[in-house]
Amino acid sequence: MSVALDRYLKAGDLYDAYDPVTSTEKYFKGTDDSTLVFVPPARDPPKIRDSIMLVAGPDKGRTGRMIGEEVAVSRVGAASGSKKAIIKLNTTLGGIREIKVVPYEMVAKTLQQG
Questions:
Q1: I need a labelling partner for 76 at 20 to 30 A (CA). Which of 16, 89, 95, 101 fits?
Q2: In which domain of life is the source organism classified (predicted)?
Q3: 28 φ/ψ angles, rounded to the nearest 5 degrees
């Protein structure tokens, strides 16, 4: 339901504020991924309710919480293997936290402090 609301607000241009940074890739150009603090997805894949970091794409480095998963299903009912993560970003814009649907490979679990 959160994804549907977020898409509705974007389509209707109903957000009060927009993030002025359209892509964070420029901030990480030339930076080794080892400087980012996250658990490699192959070692411990993120699950729903985990704190996550985007490790690729235009939102690289942004953090949030994984709130769901999508798996593409073919017409015959079999999963086609295309898995996506639904995340709620930590950044607040106009009092609303943005929801993103991204490929599962772009998401890694953040290290817990404490």
A1: 101
A2: Eukaryota
A3: -105, 5
- So what's the pLDDT on residue 22? 64
Task: Give me the domain span that covers residue 56.
Answer: 2-109
Highest mean predicted confidence (pLDDT) among 21-25, 35-39, 43-47, 74-78 = 43-47
Q: How far is CA 104 from the centre of its chain?
A: 8
DSSP 48-84: TT-EEEE-SSTTTT-EEEEEEEEEEE-TTS-EEEEEE
Give me the residue label for tokens 């106009």: 94
Residues 52-87 have pLDDT tens digits of 999 888 888 889 999 999 887 766 656 566 889 999
Tally the domains of the chain: 1
